[in-house]
Design a protein that fits this description.
single chain; OB fold (Dihydrolipoamide Acetyltransferase, E2P); BirA Bifunctional Protein, domain 2; 5-stranded mixed beta barrel; 34% helix; aminoacyl-trna synthetase; ATP-binding
Length: 572
């Protein structure tokens, strides 16, 4: 009997519950009536296979790249120039090779092509591309450009990328040791403009940390700040004088200060050389004294065991006693102390005095003329032997060259007062200027301008000062008892030397002491020297820092003092 033919509904039900057929290409279950997912199609399977193959190739490629990277890093880690740079061990004088170290100031055309070694400060650096770095090195007033270029050659002078990177990380003001070859070049960023050094070796000997200010900022002239006020694109940091003095070690590194203190040193050297040539001898007097030498109001008192001592206001008394001891011509360079609460541009409580004393035969002008020739010898020596230093200073402190005459102008004090009165000057209280009035700072400067305009000189002498404004040991004028045989020397309208003929008669000296309120019994040692007999003599004292300040027109005496002392500063 034949099977009955199923209805369409029965066929559909049978198909829904029948198991799906399987093939080698499709093993996933077929969709069910409840909506289960059907197996992937052939196309899907092919796509998956391709993705798997692609992933396999990507993994192989990544493995190859990783292997190559490791090889590259290993190669880079093998720095063939590592012996040419780095940080040196602590310098403990481990060895001495007697190498000749270059001083930048000695560079010349004959230096080109020579291999050199030098120690210097790292002034600054800048990269140019990925393979060149320019470094500026500084030695005192000179700066020299160095060039570091990556090289592919494997030799003792090889420069690697690691060495280039090292150079860029050296802190400014670090002390470096450099070897290289001098080359001709045109350089604008350094004081040495004709040469540079091709760097082969670069080591740090001393590395530094945070700086209080940059040398570039501390070296800027006032004109730069004036330009910055007019141009908003220019941004400069002004380093104020108190900040400089608080961080004096840093400030001393500027080329300007290096030049200033070379000139200060030269003033002392020229002072010595001239006086030695004139038969003077150098003495060294004590700075602790048992009595004030000039006025009690301006003397420092110090505890001296169970008593009181005074810091010397000058070596005046010691110089005179040396003359009484038949030394004839003496000089001294030493500290002078003044307890004056003067917070001005030209006063300090401690400064270096250049003092001299000299016996004369007929007239105190013999001494005045020696002082004059000595100062002119200093001026000439500075202008001839220190042109480089003067030009360095002019970049930050522009000024006209110091003018002085072959025959120095000598004005009587009354003549100076007359010039001031004719020009409309008044006394400090606004009253009429008297013939015997002391000169105020303003009138000194005014007289300096009048003299420069009339006589074309920055240097002159005022003679015959009023006796009332001079120290007790000053000899009165033989004709006019209101005047004295005393003198001041001026530079750019400011006094730099004060001097006079001294009273050498003991009786007259006692009389002069009493007239200014000094008890002669407190100065018996001084008086006893004159009781033994002293020749007529005269001398003077010069403020070293004031000479330097005025010659270079620095504007403030503290700039001419290594570590200045004033009423508000005792450190550093």
């Amino acid at each position: 009997m034949s099977e009955p033919i199923p209805t369409e509904a029965q066929a559909a039900e049978t198909q829904a519950v029948a198991p799906a057929a399987t093939t080698t290409e499709n093993t996933a279950p077929a969709p069910t009536a409840e909506g289960e997912a059907a197996g992937p199609t052939k196309g899907e399977l092919k796509r998956r296979a391709k993705e798997a193959e692609k992933a396999k190739k990507a993994a192989e490629r990544a493995a190859r790249e990783e292997e190559e990277r490791k090889k590259r890093e290993a190669k880079e880690a093998q720095d063939d120039a590592k012996q040419n740079y780095g940080k040196l061990p602590l310098h403990q004088s481990q060895e001495r090779n007697n190498r000749k170290f270059l001083r930048f100031g000695d560079l010349s055309e004959s230096s080109v092509g020579q291999r050199v070694i030098f120690r210097a400060r790292m002034h600054n650096s800048r990269a140019q591309g990925a393979k060149i770095v320019f470094l500026n090195f500084r030695q005192q007033t000179h700066t020299l450009q160095g060039v570091l270029v990556v090289s592919g050659e494997k030799d003792e002078n090889q420069v690697s990328k690691q060495m280039l990177k090292f150079s860029q990380l050296i802190p400014s003001e670090s002390i470096v040791l450099v070897e290289g070859v001098i080359k001709s070049a045109e350089v604008k960023s350094c004081t040495i403009t004709d040469y540079e050094v091709g760097i082969h070796k670069l080591f740090t000997a001393v590395e530094v940390g945070e700086l209080p200010f940059s040398i570039d900022d501390a070296s800027r002239p006032e004109a730069d700040f004036e330009k910055a006020e007019q141009d908003e694109n220019l941004q400069y940091s002004r380093v104020a004088l108190p900040t400089r003095l608080d961080n004096r070690v840093m400030d001393l590194r500027t080329p300007t200060n290096q030049a200033i203190f070379r000139i200060q040193s030269a003033v002392g050297q020229l002072f010595r050389e001239y006086l030695n040539s004139q038969g003077f001898i150098e003495i060294h007097s004590p700075k602790l004294q048992g009595a004030a030498t000039e006025s009690g109001a301006s003397v420092f008192k110090v505890q001296y065991f169970n008593g009181t001592a005074f810091l010397a206001q000058s070596p005046q008394l010691a110089k005179q006693m040396a003359i009484a001891g038949d030394m004839e011509r003496v000089y001294e360079i030493g500290p002078v102390f003044r307890a004056e609460d003067s917070n001005t541009h030209r006063h300090m409580t401690e400064f270096m005095g250049l003092d001299l004393e000299m016996a004369f035969e007929e007239h105190y002008h013999e001494v005045l003329e020696v002082l004059d020739e000595m100062l002119k010898n200093i001026f000439k020596g500075l202008q001839k032997g220190f042109k480089h230093e003067i030009e360095v200073i002019k970049k930050q402190f522009p000024h006209e060259d110091f003018l002085f005459l072959d025959e120095t102008l000598k004005l009587p004090f009354k003549e100076g007062i007359k010039m001031l009165k004719e020009a409309g000057a008044k006394a400090s209280d606004g009253s009429e200027l008297g013939e015997l009035d002391d000169l105020s700072t303003e009138n000194e400067k005014f007289l300096g301008r009048l003299v420069r305009e009339k006589y074309k000189t920055d240097y002159f002498i005022l003679d015959k000062f009023p006796l009332a404004i001079r120290p007790f040991y000053t000899m009165p004028d033989p004709v006019d008892s209101t005047l004295s045989n005393s003198y001041d020397f001026f530079m750019r309208g400011e006094e730099i030397l004060s001097g006079a003929q001294r009273v050498h008669d003991p009786s007259f000296l006692i009389e002069r002491m009493k007239s200014v309120g000094i008890d002669p019994s407190t100065m018996t040692g001084y008086l006893d020297a004159f009781k033994l007999g002293a020749p007529p003599h005269a001398g003077g004292g010069i403020g070293l820092e004031r000479v330097v300040m005025l010659f270079l027109k620095l504007g403030n005496i503290r700039r001419a003092s290594l570590f200045p002392r004033d009423p508000k500063r005792l450190t550093p």
